[in-house]
Amino acid sequence: MDPGLQAAFRHVERLLMGDMAHPGLTLHELERLVGYPAKGSGPLSYTLPPSPELKGVQAVRLFYYPKDPALQLIVEVEEFSGRRHLRHFRWNGFTWEVPEGHKDLRATEELLGFQKVGEDYFLGFSREEARELAGALRRGEVPGAKYLLCPKCSARIFYAPGTNPVGVACPACGNPTLLFKTLSPGERKDPLEALAEEQKALRQALEELLAYLKRKLGP
Ligand SMILES: [Zn+2]
User: Fold this and answer.
1) 196 and 181, same domain (yes or no)
2) Alpha-carbon distance 195 to 172, whole Å?
3) pLDDT by residue (tens digit) across 64-94?
């Protein structure tokens, strides 16, 4: 790993977890930094002030998600090249811990800016926004939504109005050639919901068949 990046990660780790000389950042201190709740219910962000440890990177930002019980803090380290590295944390009452499924602080996790919710990907949305949008999509409430479709693995990538979808590669399979699509009304892709609907239709067909047979054959 690049030494500037490595120094920045060490700095962040010391800041969050503490060391022999300093205690780690508490949830309360983080809330003070980002201005919660004065500035709203989040997500809220705070950019670390410049310091010698951070001179090898463009910026280090803390994003606080007060309403998310599973993921409360995202640390973003941005390189001079614009490449970003994200680390996810949850406050367990005493210290910051890494939620399951996420890598530890030093592991190199590529960031593409995608949020995955269910089967879909969301580009340029916060975790909360992506979840909300995913819910609305499931309920069929956003006809006309623009998305990219991967013709290879049929992943769908919904993108925020401010993002540039040109040149985006599929986050699931890496295919660089994606199709521009617009969600048609009534289109859904929740597999569980589709299955439930299929079962309901099947049950109804069976009931109709039984009723027909009863009529035909008598009791
Ligand atoms: Zn794909």
Assistant:
1) no
2) 23
3) 888 877 778 888 888 887 777 778 888 988 8
Q: Range of 213's domain?
A: 190-219
Rg, Å, the chain Cα set: 23
State whether 142 and 198 are in the same domain.
no
* 102 and 27 share one domain: yes
Residue 121: how many other CB atoms lie within 10 Å:
25
Question: From ligand 1's centre to the CA of 101, what distance in Å?
Answer: 21
Could you read off the pLDDT of 115-165 as tens digits, one per residue?
888 889 998 777 778 888 898 888 888 878 889 999 998 999 998 776 778
Is 38 found in the same domain as 123? no
The angle at the Cα of 70, spanning 64 to 75, to the nearest 5 degrees, equals 35
How far, in Å, from the CA of 116 to the mean position of ligand 1? Answer: 13
- Cβ neighbours around 128 below 10 Å, total: 16
Q: What's this model's pTM, rounded to 2 decimal places?
A: 0.49
- Count of domains forming the chain: 3
- CA 31 – ligand 1 centroid, Å: 38
